[in-house]
Amino acid sequence: xxxxxxxxxxTWRTExxxxxxxxAIAIPLNIGYAQIAGLPATAGLxxxxxxxxxxxxxxxxxxxxxxxxxxxAALVGSSLAGLAAAGSGSYLQLxxxxxxxxxxxxxxxxxxxxGFLANFLSAPILVGFVGGLALDILISQVAKMLGVTVDxxxxxxPRLGELIAGLGHVNPWSTSIAVGSIVVLVVGRRVRAVPxxxxxxxxxTLVLVLFHLDERGVSxxxxxxxxxxxxxxxxxxWHQWLQLVPSAVALTLVxxxxxxxVARRYAERHGYPENANxxxxxxxxxxxxxxxTGGFTVGSSASRTAAMDQAGSRTQLPxxxxxxxxxxxxxxxxxxxxxxxxxxxxxxxxxxxxxxxGIRDFARLWKLRRFEFAVAAxxxxxxxxLGPIAGVVIAFVLSLVNVVRSAANxxxxxxxxxxxxxxxxxxxxxxxxxxxxxxxxxxxxxxxxFGNAQVFAAAxxxxxxxxxxxxxxxxxxxxxxxxxxxxxxxxVVGESIEWVRxxxxxxxxxxxxxxxxxxxxxxxxxxxxxxxGSNRAAVAALSVAE
Length: 546
What we know:
- This protein is mainly alpha-helical.
- The chain is built from 20 helices and 8 strands.
- Helix 2 runs antiparallel to helix 10 and helix 17 runs parallel beside helix 18.
- The longest helix has 33 residues.
- The protein is elongated, with a radius of gyration of 29 Å.
């Protein structure tokens, strides 16, 4: 295992500058995300230091940035709100413990090679789930930008009501700072080289201090304790540890789904190796470091990863450098943080969160596939109205329903020669019931299991009935796509084959994999049937026999 793969004498300057850029982006955002989670600013900063170094040194992905993100912060905040008061000592202890449980879950997923579970969260489901969390976050940030007080522990509907009720008490100074910050952040996107979030924090703090806006009702970040992260262990009961398991598992699954997807995407784009299980171990180490040093759950940040890619970074050195700079801030620069206006932090988080609403993605799903749009919408409403944990459960249930729905209705086609030079067999034209004179070739495109066995039986009966009327005497079952057979399906296949033979039709198999043929023989489904290596060979032999 090589640390900081891809780093050499020709790239270190680009990587070092990217690290400074990453710190300028990550420090303001992590302060905001810590507030979303109901934690002090130091928790967000500490989550950059030891976790960043551990992930940067251990991950196989050269570009994935590990850090708390908006979705993880919202999950932390919502899951802990019912267990302790936000910002209290007990709340902090629970956040640390949650990260440690997440470390164990990540490690188990790596050891048991369960990274494939992330594939069950399809793109529409992630769009809906993350979009619901984003709107939840946005409501709180809008209240912060307007200077309106809402109870962060409330569900989304009460908070929305509090926000609307407070519109008559909007603080114009808070609103002005927020609007100015948003304008700078949005317009500044045209110049990517400038860390605009840091510019907003510095400029808004100077304005607040110069004009004493804190005396006019503008809230500020407040005192931030100085000092490096220190080792700690959560002082909570075993009952509380158990209460945190569901939320920690949910956080792990969401982080795993997004993190592995982003890591794979960039590895394929730039042609370097990527090991999902090693990245899971790296996430485990990062969360272990976070929980032991005063941070909170660490996932991945797609937006920061994209920013580093645009900056030309192709190694994990920027993560390590950002960790060092964050350490310098908590050791020597906390006095500079206490006067940061809360509306500016709210603006930074809001601008970062708005793309996560997935408006374009919803529009695309509506245009391309209405069912997947409905799935995304259900996940959106579930995460928004029922809470993130319920949203994760809904997402996985819908994923399984979608998988079963697809697997239970595989394509079934009568095949016919295509007329191409290689004489390949394709799905027959509508109305064509035989593949060749006297022969019907039927392809079942999927594994045979209890959920689709009756689909197979119905297809066999309909194709044979139509084929007999057309003079067919042979049925060839194309097994290339049949990758497995369970007991229930084997019984149904056996009954179907007996029915076919009772009609005076001979049964043969083509293109069966060795494992599939072994299963057919194991379930005693072969009898005197013949096997052919191709559909062309089957048709040629059976047509002659005819």
